[in-house]
Amino acid sequence: MIRVLLAGAGAMGRAWLAAIHADPGVELAGVVDLDPAAARRAAAGLPAGADVAVLGAETAADAVIDVTVPVAHHAVTTTALFAGMSVLGEKPVADTLARALSLVAAAEVSGRLFMVSQSRRWNPQLATLRAMAAALGPVGAVGTDFHRAPRFGGFREEMAQPLLVDMAIHAFDAARYLLDADPVTVSCQTWNPPWSWYAGDACAAAVFEMTGGARYVYHGSWCSPGAETSWNGEWRVSAQHGTARWDGDHEPTGPAVDPPDGQRSGIGAALRAFAEALESGVTPMGEVHGNVLSLAMVEAAVDSAARGRPVPIDDVLARAHERAVRDETRADVRAALRNWTDVRTALSST
Ligand SMILES: NC(=O)c1ccc[n+]([C@@H]2O[C@H](COP(=O)([O-])OP(=O)(O)OC[C@H]3O[C@@H](n4cnc5c(N)ncnc54)[C@H](O)[C@@H]3O)[C@@H](O)[C@H]2O)c1
Q1: 76 CB under 6 A from ligand 1?
Q2: Does domain 2-120+267-287+314-348 have CATH number 3.90.1150.190?
């Protein structure tokens, strides 16, 4: 039985509460939120508080599920790791790539597991599409079309790059999983049509060169009324021996493949994988080292759109590393970051 603290009792925190209660191997030890009333409501009689280290000591919890807002991920996760707890964090790993690298080093120094939950990675239909892609021989291109028209109100309508920063990471991370490849360069344009209800750019088109040579092409919009795609987007894998397609909601079409293992999907599957990793010591999919390049794809796409030219991912990683070393407040984490000779190599070692 793994005892967890839930940090962040907002909209997504409620979904995590349900996932915790649905897993017989995981027990809720307490809830942390800056808003004491929200923490108490979610805790329903269990310990509640505003500080993850204090509540961790009080409850002897094994782990923290960090479902706070992205800007708080770095502080909450660092505190939890150095208080001796493992962490399962919501995407994005942090609000900036530099802080994500700091969290990688913090996981190394603390010796605790930090896994990032990218819920769509755990979609069994995506796993089937991945098996189809592998059966089709060398892949030339993978494409995602994502077109919706949500009226969120609030912060998303004020952000400079709402689609890339708040949404596209799901597709970018899924593309890495699908191709079993990492990004090399990106060329991206973003724009905002005259009818958009977003202040920032609600549309983006990005071409990534991936390791191995395949291209990943993302075309998305958050102000595209009519014929909306799935929230997962529509996918096409174009390979030497054929094509596989996925509408994002139903079984993909392509060559016959064995169904994927496991019944769970989404955050329930991520939670189970985290609990099993804590028991077995085996590194799970989503461990922080393996997740960071998905956030790098977002930051590089934003950078390419701003500069109006292709951007090498290694340049973005190097700049983030410099900033991470400069901004780090813990001496032990700064020393670990300084020891990295090359960020990509550091991220490939777990
Ligand atoms: N996987 C998905 O599909 C998906 C969907 C929605 C949100 N998310 C992610 O989930 C996370 C939370 O999103 P949300 O929509 O629930 O946000 P939210 O604003 O509804 O809730 C966040 C909560 O965190 C609390 N909080 C903020 N700073 C804190 C701190 N330092 N310590 C403790 N609590 C703190 C806030 O008081 C709030 O209650 C984000 O990282 C978001 O990207 C993922």
Answers
A1: yes
A2: no
